[in-house]
Amino acid sequence: MKNLEELKKIRERVKRDLELRTGKHRIKIVVCLGTCGIAAGARDSMNTLIDLITRSNRNDIIVTTSGCAGFCEQEPMIQVYVEGEEPVVYGKVDTKAAEEIFNQHILNHQVVEKYLFTKGK
Amino acid sequence: MKDIANHIFDILENSVRAGATKIEILMKFTQGCFYCQITDNGAGIKVKEKEREVTDPFVTSRKERRVGLGLPLLKSTAEGTGGFLKIYNLEKRGCCLEFAINMIHIDAKPFGDLTRVILDALICWPETDLILWLDNGNNQREEIFNSKELKKILEIGDLKEKQIKDFIYQSLEEGFKKIGIDKQFGYL
User: What is the number of other CB atoms lying within 10 angstroms of the CB of residue B126?
Assistant: First the structure.
């Protein structure tokens, strides 16, 4: 790969911002990325979520991925784990739904009934 | 799957699930034929499943459901254009998958965003080393991406940063453009 030196410089430049933003994760979003999820467009939803997190400047939210959960008809599916709250699973989360869920559930702790698949364990 | 990018991401996930710590991707695009080879060092194909059977949708080792569609879908995408798909275990550990798609065929799917696939793979599976080679058709391989080297100067958390993400995206895209992947038919 080329231009590694250049990348190094960019990193130095943004490093200070990064240092301010490292902390413990309190909210975890899991995007199901099996064959079914990918075909349904889960990668777009995931990227939307990552962008939203970066834009919101929150350092306590992480996005991870998992394989197929076995409910392929509900894809793209995401699981939201908020510390101290019941885990929530959303189904059919396109980019628009991802934005809604992020704004309502993740920022304001309100479950979005419209896309709710299951709640609890 | 809407595009080839999604297919490739799906195949990469297979490798990761098989416990691969290193995945090498080689892509070649000449005279309208797209060739891709993905080599990993994961668990490979189990003897029980057999190499010729993994492209059968009803052969799977997972427990959530009884069908596995990733490989069969890619196989039909490739063969529908007159291409092929081969998958076999390597002598040492790991497995190798090769496929070719005739992009000029009317049934060929668009490439989609291959650059995004590499970035997404890096974000999703930070522990896995990802190496991307491009072949310009003269059998000269050029390494355009190596996540191991990238990790020497970056941490995975840095990838959230837009400037860094854009920089990697652009440098990858330049590489893809060189072999014509930004055009459906490439450089004929």
Answer: 15
**B73–chain A Cβ distance below 8 A for any pair:** yes
Q: Is B91 on the interface with A (CB under 8 A)?
A: no
Residue B125's domain comprises 4-187
> Which has the closest alpha carbon to B135: B33, B3, B42?
B33
Lowest-confidence segment of A4-8, B17-21, B142-146 by average pLDDT: A4-8
Residues in chain B within 8 Å Cβ distance of A41: 2
CB nearest A69 (choices: B64, B145, B164): B64
CB contact under 8 A, A38 and B9: yes
Q: Is the ipTM above a cut-off of 0.85?
A: no
pTM of the model: 0.83
User: What string of DSSP letters covers B102-159?
Assistant: ETTSTTPPP---HHHHHHHHHHH-TTSEEEEEEE-SSS-EEEEEEHHHHHHH--GGGG
Check which CATH number belongs to the domain holding B49 and give it. Answer: 3.30.565.10
Structurally, how many domains does chain B consist of? 1
Chain B hits for A35, CB-CB cut-off 8 Å, are 10, 13, 68-70, 73
